[in-house]
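Hi V.,

Quick status before I head out on leave. The structure for the redesign project is tokenized and pasted below; the design run finished overnight.
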């Protein structure tokens, strides 16, 4: 007997919400049965009922919901879903504050519900391949992780600044890809676009084990860049998440005959390899993983506790920028590795 498809609901039809709607409408084993959007239905081609509020979606009946409304509404919507017994995939960041994120974690855990955070970079093919190679020891000891994430200002973002919006990508992927938690951070921010929130951040920090991190994130550049560079004892990996390319730069293995240079214990340029890796859409993979988790199968998802950890680090960056200080990160958090969820 064929099992009925899971009934999914979507909350929010902004730029990201429309992408979620596109994927949900074609996702195997899932039927998109309702969308919440107070402004109406800009995607009528989906032929899915659009209701003005969450009560209308709950009346339709859903097995799980995807929350893609503005960050400021995540707590309100998430708590209502938890109270109604509905599993939820909540877009990143989990919430706009540590307190709000903590309340969401507590609510879903108390209800015993599957819940995840949409940190989509974890499903980027380049970063998936990079993490596997680091786990296999191909780089050796990790010395440094450097990320650059910049581009034009997105006018759709109004409730949080670049730290909570864009930098949370880099915080989550850095911890996840190297399997280490943040220990300290220091940051500087500026606001040049006339908005209430910051639109540029430069941050440095340290992970457990001593690896350095550096993040440059802004909404002030016409150049769109998404780069992660992990340097270690055997060379460095460069992941371009715009193109999903992963390139390996090996340390040189040829001895230097020049005596003056030999005295410097550095490295020389070696082989360079750009890997051929399968490239599936990260958003589709994210939805497949969450669907499987809701369906009671083992599946790697970004848990709410991991989302809380990311919000905590982002809040520390903002605190550091405001105080001009280095901020230590609370280490009493869930493990970094992606959770495997299996429910009966």
């Amino acid at each position: 007997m064929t099992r009925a498809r899971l009934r999914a609901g979507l909350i929010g039809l902004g730029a990201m919400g429309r992408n979620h709607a596109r994927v949900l409408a074609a996702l195997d084993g899932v039927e998109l049965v309702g969308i919440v959007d107070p402004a109406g239905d800009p995607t009528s081609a989906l032929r899915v009922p659009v209701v003005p509020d969450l009560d209308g979606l709950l009346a339709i009946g859903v097995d799980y919901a995807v929350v893609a409304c503005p960050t400021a509404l995540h707590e309100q919507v998430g708590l209502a879903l938890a109270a109604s017994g509905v599993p939820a995939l909540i877009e990143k960041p989990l919430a706009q504050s540590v307190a709000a994120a903590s309340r969401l974690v507590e609510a879903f855990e108390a209800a015993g519900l599957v819940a995840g955070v949409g940190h989509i970079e974890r499903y980027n093919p380049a970063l998936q391949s990079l993490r596997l190679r680091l786990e296999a020891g191909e780089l050796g000891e990790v010395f440094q992780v450097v990320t650059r994430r910049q581009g034009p200002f997105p006018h759709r973002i109004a409730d949080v600044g670049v730290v909570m919006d864009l930098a949370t990508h880099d915080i989550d992927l850095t911890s996840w890809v190297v399997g280490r938690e943040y220990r300290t951070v220091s940051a500087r921010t500026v606001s040049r676009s006339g908005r209430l929130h910051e639109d540029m951040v430069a941050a440095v920090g340290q992970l457990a084990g001593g690896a350095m991190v550096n993040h440059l994130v802004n909404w002030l550049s016409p150049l769109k860049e998404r780069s992660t560079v992990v340097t270690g004892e055997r060379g460095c990996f460069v992941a371009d998440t715009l193109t999903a390319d992963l390139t390996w730069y090996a340390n040189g293995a040829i001895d230097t005959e020049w005596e003056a240079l030999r005295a410097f214990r550095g490295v020389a340029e070696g082989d360079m390899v750009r890997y051929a890796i399968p490239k599936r859409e990260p958003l589709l993979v994210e939805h497949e993983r969450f669907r499987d988790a809701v369906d009671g199968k083992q599946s790697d998802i970004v848990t709410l506790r991991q989302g809380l950890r990311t919000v905590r680090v982002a809040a520390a960056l903002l605190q550091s920028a405001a105080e001009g200080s280095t901020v230590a990160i609370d280490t009493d958090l869930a493990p970094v590795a992606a959770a495997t969820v299996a429910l009966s």
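Above is the designed sequence. The longest strand covers residues 142-150.

G. will cover questions while I'm gone.

Best,
W.
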